[in-house]
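Q: My labmate handed me this sequence with no annotations at all. I'd like to see what the chain might look like in three dimensions before we decide whether it's worth expressing. Could you predict it?
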Amino acid sequence: MSDLPKVAGTSPVKVELEEGKKYAYCTCGLSSNQPFCDGQHKGSGFNPIVFTAEANQTIPMCMCKLTENAPRCDGKHKCLSEPDTTSLQ
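A: Here is what I predict for the chain of 89 residues:
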């Protein structure tokens, strides 16, 4: 079990939230329903952040899982290096 979450993406994703609706933001990076939790965290030591949207709005949700303002992106993904794709050619 790692202390760090899996990076699910290197840029935020814009998500439309519906006022009064409850959401579960994935903090482990393992969910196949990013940026939302699908239960893949079980046994990982991570738990989703459950929140209720206060308004109908579109927000940038963190995909790198390093934000200090979860579920919103705070720009931490900019410190990640681009993956090496040269070995894929």
